[in-house]
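Lecture notes, continued. The same structure-token format from the folding unit now serves as the input rather than the output. Read the line below as a description of shape only.
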């Protein structure tokens, strides 16, 4: 009998996914794309693909109910799923929700959660079409799956970026991470002295980025109207450094990102300084931004260069040139993903 025991921590999240993936191959011709992108791609008809993605949120790991309003949590749980459909250049259509709830919860609490789910369904025009409900002995677990659609010639993968493509990112980066740091700090203060009121005024933006992030379907609709199909795309869930490296690894290319082009919100910047954190490190590695990170051909530059909510942060280069960060002083250093270890 083989008694070898391998710790999950030795593989990490991505190593574990690769490990699982290596044991499976696709058997059905309808399975166009399996493990490895933001959503799976399934044959639908002569012109369209179905997209399918799932994401789980676990109390104590992904959220803390002591400072997370339930309507925000409901909205976020849907938005993070929609974001994966957006990252395929798709349009979300339906969701199913699996809930494991402890008896600590009241009907009113469930109603509050579903109020946020409803708001997200209305915002992203998706239908809640099913799910599953069970009891939990260890906190709230939310599992949502989303179905979307895209045209055969308009599906965007992670593995198709080409040297000279321009790297673009929507919105700003690092705010969700800094919002979380502020919430955690205020929680600690409160636990030591419950008479203390949390100091959150003026930080509404970064708190909202953490507690109630949206998905950038607005950008997908705009890109479609502008006739821009990215060459590769991913949504920023782990941090832009980690996520661009997914595109690079899967596309077998390298990248150069410019430190001074990384978009950082002013409140996020000031909060980082106050917490003695490096704003650029927060922006590159923070995660949970749910912005879109994509590459475009040089020929689309003119169409996108003046877009107020899209930053051009670098370019794709040959793999041999590596993954680089060009610092403000012009030095080229290795771009590394600090990412997050779940185990
Ligand atoms: P994202 O952050 O975009 O949701 P993940 O990093 O969670 O993507 O997952 C990357 C890929 O690995 C996806 O294709 C996802 O479906 C797949 N995946 C993740 N966990 C598992 C698992 N336990 N079994 C099979 N595939 C998985
Ligand atoms: Mg994703």
């Amino acid at each position: 009998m083989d008694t070898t025991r391998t710790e999950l921590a030795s593989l990490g999240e991505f190593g574990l996914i690769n490990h699982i993936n290596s044991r499976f191959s696709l058997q059905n011709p309808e399975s166009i794309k399996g493990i490895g992108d933001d959503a799976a791609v399934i044959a639908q008809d002569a012109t369209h693909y179905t997209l399918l993605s799932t994401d789980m949120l676990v109390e104590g790991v992904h959220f803390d109910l002591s400072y997370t309003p339930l309507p925000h949590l409901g909205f976020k749980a849907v938005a993070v799923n929609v974001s994966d459909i957006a990252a395929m250049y798709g349009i979300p259509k339906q969701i199913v929700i699996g809930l494991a709830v402890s008896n600590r919860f009241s009907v009113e609490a469930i109603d509050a959660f579903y109020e946020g789910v409803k708001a997200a369904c209305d915002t992203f025009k998706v239908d809640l079409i099913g799910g599953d409900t069970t009891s939990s002995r260890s906190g709230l677990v939310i599992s949502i799956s989303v179905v979307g659609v895209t045209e055969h010639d308009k599906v965007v993968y992670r593995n198709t970026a080409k040297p000279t493509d321009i790297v673009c990112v929507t919105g700003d980066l690092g705010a969700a991470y800094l919002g979380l740091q502020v919430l955690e700090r205020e929680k600690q203060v409160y636990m030591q002295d419950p008479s203390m009121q949390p100091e959150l005024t003026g930080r509404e933006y970064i708190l909202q980025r953490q507690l109630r992030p949206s998905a950038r379907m607005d950008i997908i609709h705009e890109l479609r109207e502008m006739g821009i199909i990215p060459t590769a795309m991913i949504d920023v869930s782990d941090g832009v450094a980690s996520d661009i490296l997914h595109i690079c690894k899967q596309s077998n290319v390298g990248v150069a990102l410019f430190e001074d082009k990384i978009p950082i919100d002013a409140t996020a910047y000031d909060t980082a300084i106050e917490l003695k954190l490096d704003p650029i490190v927060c922006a590159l590695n923070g995660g949970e931004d749910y912005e879109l990170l994509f590459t475009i051909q040089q020929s689309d530059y003119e169409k996108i260069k003046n877009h107020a909510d899209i930053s051009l942060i670098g370019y794709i280069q040959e793999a041999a040139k590596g993954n680089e960060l060009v610092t403000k002083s012009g030095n080229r250093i290795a771009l590394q993903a600090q990412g997050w270890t779940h185990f």
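Point for the exam: The longest helix spans residues 107-124.
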